[in-house]
Amino acid sequence: MFKNPHQQLSDSKNNDYDILSIGNIFVAPIRLLPNKDKIASVKGLNDGDIIGIRADLTNGGRALKQLEKAGLIEIDPNAGFIPNKTDITKYNVKIQFREAESGLLYCLLRDLSASVLNAEYAFTVNLDPYKYSIFSENVDPKENPFFSELVNVIAARTKDKDNEVCKKVVEAYQTPEVEKVLNELYKGAYIPVWEGAQSKF
Fold this sequence. Notes:
This protein is of the alpha+beta class. The chain folds into two domains: 2-26 and 153-192, Periplasmic binding protein-like II (D-Maltodextrin-Binding Protein, domain 2, 3-Layer(aba) Sandwich); 31-136, Periplasmic binding protein-like II (D-Maltodextrin-Binding Protein, domain 2, 3-Layer(aba) Sandwich). It has helices at residues 5-15, 57-69, 102-108, 119-124, 129-132, 147-150, 164-173, 176-186; strands spanning 2-3, 19-27, 31-34, 50-54, 73-75, 88-91, 96-100, 114-117, 135-136, 152-157, 191-192. The protein has a five-stranded mixed β-sheet. Strands 1-10-2-11 form a four-stranded antiparallel β-sheet. Strands 5-6 form a two-stranded antiparallel sheet.
């Protein structure tokens, strides 16, 4: 199964079983996508504008961190990787939030000023998130201290970590062929990060 570290930890706790990473696959930067009828850049956001973010704690907190990077808000540094709205210490622009699942956020975008979203949903509506976004998450491990939290992995039950089938799944994914597909088809939306991959951040 494909997981990020927070999903992995959550599943372990909620389902009372142990899972662990058996191989890195990619990072998927989140992006601030605008309602083009309302704004064309981050600077176009004004007091009262509504920004959509994911409703779940992990992705919602990750979105808040990017809005901080974009200069819209300031967050208590003690909040760590997944802050919530109560950790906002200052609004540089008095934006409001609409929380929903990713698929719904795309549908709601026409009623919002912008949304912070994963690229996967953009492709389902034939939207190039790389070209369309007005702010993108920096996932360069040299610059992002939370890089390890962003890596999607292939996870398995701890007791199956040496299972030959699991190993073959990892080997089948971590190939130049898969890397080529990710780079050419998704153009920066999914960045390969396994050992030996030619990552371009």
